[in-house]
Design goal:
About 30% of the residues lie in helices and about 30% in strands. The protein is an alpha/beta fold. It folds into 2 domains: about 140 residues, Alpha-Beta Complex (Quinone Oxidoreductase, Chain A, domain 1); about 150 residues, 3-Layer(aba) Sandwich (Rossmann fold).
């Protein structure tokens, strides 16, 4: 038997994404075969395809940073999961496919009553927001924060989770997205026509408790400028090249050495203890089940139409998440 996946056959536009067939083999020892139900489409998928990341996968590769699916077959030695179990995983690559093979350490059980289209954004976007808020910045109720990049999948996750903590939130976004930010409880700032440092120094003269930057490294100094003494900036966006990574690292170290009482931290899911990933996913599943969070799914596409989904995300018009789904869920 065969299954299909979407493969990046080169670097460049979404035109390099092609549908290819693979053999559907039995899972190896300690491995699980998963029928994929939902995949989040994220900026890292696009960056890996375009080539603007310091560490890139070799061509050809299958993008897809996170998946939700059902266990279809298990290899010898697998006792923690059974055929039919609903699972999720942070894959980094491989999600744009009908099936995927993963080792046990990557998997987490998902309650079967949750909508896979809403679970998919939790696996990366909400995980990033939750861990930055609670494990990096350690926000407290009524803290004042700034979100740099507030309208995308991670940004809207920050806003929903921040609202639960009663944070006072400012968000940078283009004017056509301001209504969405207001609805999510944020005070929008137009990053194109307004100097956000000037705006925030005027309305928050004592400074902010935290700044969360998922955009370019160019925002670091300005983000630090609006913090109060004792405040924290967390950067979670990846640099676009090895050179920019080196420059970012130098600036990161320098800003932490400046004796102004402010701190800057970097976040990446690859540096997180897997046990904390599972713990926080379970928390997020509970919040979703209780209706306390509800991911904004701006668009849904069949998995094999990932190229169209990439084009939409790259357009910059999306508020929330773009999700790929198995045909039976559309």
């Amino acid at each position: 038997m065969k299954y299909k996946g979407v493969v990046a056959t080169g670097r460049g536009s979404s035109d390099v994404l092609e549908i290819m067939e693979n053999d559907l083999r039995a899972p190896a020892v300690g491995e699980v075969r998963i029928k994929i139900l939902a995949v989040g489409v994220c900026q890292d998928d696009i960056a890996a395809r375009v080539g603007n990341r310091p560490f890139l996968p070799k061509i050809p590769f299958t993008p897809g940073y996170d998946i939700v699916g059902d266990v279809d077959a298990i290899g010898d030695g697998v006792t923690e999961f059974a055929v039919g179990d609903r699972i999720a995983a942070l894959t980094v690559f491989g999600g744009y496919a009908e099936y995927i093979y993963l080792s046990l350490d990557k998997l987490v059980h998902v309650p079967g009553n949750l909508d896979p289209a809403e679970v998919a954004p939790l696996i990366l976007n909400y995980l990033v927001a939750f861990q930055v808020l609670h494990r990096m910045a350690k926000v407290r109720p009524n803290d004042k924060v700034l979100l740099i990049g507030a309208s995308g999948g991670v940004g809207t996750a920050f806003l929903q989770l921040g609202k639960l903590d009663n944070l006072k939130m400012y968000g940078l976004a283009s004017p056509n997205k301001h209504a969405a930010l207001i609805e999510l409880g944020a005070i929008p700032i137009d990053y194109r026509s307004q100097d956000f440092v000037e705006v925030l120094r005027r309305v928050e003269p004592d400074g902010l408790d935290a700044v969360f930057n998922g955009m370019a490294e160019d925002y670091l100094k300005r983000g630090m400028a609006v913090l109060r003494r004792g405040g924290t900036l967390v950067h979670y966006g990846a640099p676009q090249s090895l050179l920019r990574f080196a420059l970012f690292l130098a600036e990161f170290i320098w800003l932490n050495l400046v004796p102004d009482g402010k701190s800057i931290k970097g976040y990446g899911t690859h540096r997180v203890d897997p046990r904390l990933l599972e713990e926080d996913w379970i928390t997020l599943f509970t919040l979703l089940a209780e209706g306390k969070i509800k991911p904004i799914v701006a668009a849904k596409f069949p998995i094999l139409e990932a190229a169209r989904a990439n084009q939409l995300l790259e357009s910059g018009s999306v508020v929330g998440n773009v999700v790929l789904l198995a045909p039976e869920l559309l």
